[in-house]
Specification:
The chain is an alpha/beta fold. 36% of the residues lie in helices and 17% in strands.
């Protein structure tokens, strides 16, 4: 590996630490689904990892995350519900706070990972990182606004990596998400508790790019030393229908499937199809993506 000595002493020291020692990492939202899985993985790798949470109300539990002295900040914390109605709170926590934290990372020379979302594509059927976009909910719009801020205000002395997650699911850590949990978790809960899985009508036509939380964590870990700033789709590039997911879980539990009309409150913003374009991401990583049907086969007895 070739090293380039920067005239900026902050950046030179940061590069030296990244290459030679375990990293000092801050994860916001470390108690969330992706956050808790990533937190454990980075600890297992030998890194020094701290967590920070906003809290349950409109005031941060700890109002000032400690950025100075870190090697990397991974910003996952956000209001993630697509049906949450307090737009002002969403913009404060998801957009304004993200901008402040991004500026702190630039000021202190700390590299930056942050969570974006495939919801910025809305009901479009194109999925290239540079757009166009069609956010359909306050949550999606807050993510779009921060993506736009980063693109319009690129950092000069740190690496900025945006993770545009598609439909993340997994076997551990989603229990607290209730109605916002992935279909994987919701279908398992339904099958185990009632013996019946509920799907929307025409679910064979609704396809999503489901990506396991383990693959998301592996992507973060492989990009921990990334030096090419940008926003990257994080998915498998292989969409699977809700019908296929429901049938695979139903078979495991010997459960039945029932169908209901899609609620009018979801119809306008519902993403009927998602499929990550991975042409930007694939050259930077080496991961064999897990098909959700294979995941069901191996993770459910």
């Amino acid at each position: 590996m070739k090293y380039v000595i920067s005239i900026n002493p902050i950046i030179s020291f940061a590069v030296f630490r990244l290459c030679c020692f375990e990293m000092n990492i801050l994860i916001t939202g470390h108690k969330g689904f992706i956050g808790q899985n990533l937190f454990r993985a980075l600890l297992d790798m030998g890194h020094d990892v701290d967590g920070w949470e906003w809290g349950n109300g409109k005031t941060p539990a700890n109002p000032i995350p400690k950025v100075k002295g870190r090697d990397l900040v991974i910003h996952l914390g956000a209001i993630s519900s697509t049906t949450y109605a307090d737009v002002d709170q969403i913009m404060t926590q998801n957009t304004d706070f993200s901008i402040w934290l991004y500026e702190q990372c630039q000021h202190h020379g700390v590299n930056w990972h942050y969570a974006s979302s495939a919801s910025v594509y809305g009901t479009l059927e194109h999925f290239q990182e540079y757009g166009p976009f069609q956010p359909q909910s306050p949550y999606a719009y807050s993510k779009y606004l921060f993506d736009r801020h980063v693109i319009k205000n690129p950092a000069k002395h740190i690496t900025t990596t945006g993770f545009r997650y598609f439909n993340v699911y997994g076997h551990k850590g989603e229990e607290h998400k209730a109605d916002m949990a992935s279909p994987y978790t919701k279908f398992i809960k339904q099958a185990a508790e009632t013996g019946t899985i509920t799907l929307f009508e025409n679910s064979d036509h609704y396809k999503r790019d489901f990506i396991s939380v383990e693959d998301v964590v592996a992507t973060h870990c492989q990009l921990i030393h990334n030096t090419k700033s940008g926003v990257y789709n994080i998915g498998t590039g292989n969409p699977v229908s809700f019908q296929d997911v429901g049938e695979a879980i139903a078979q495991k539990y010997q459960a039945s499937i029932t169908y209901i009309p899609m609620p009018e409150t979801l119809r306008r913003q519902y993403q009927a199809f998602t499929c990550a374009d991975l042409s930007k991401l694939n050259p930077l990583i080496d991961i064999k993506w897990t098909d959700i049907r294979d995941y069901i086969e191996t993770h459910i007895p």
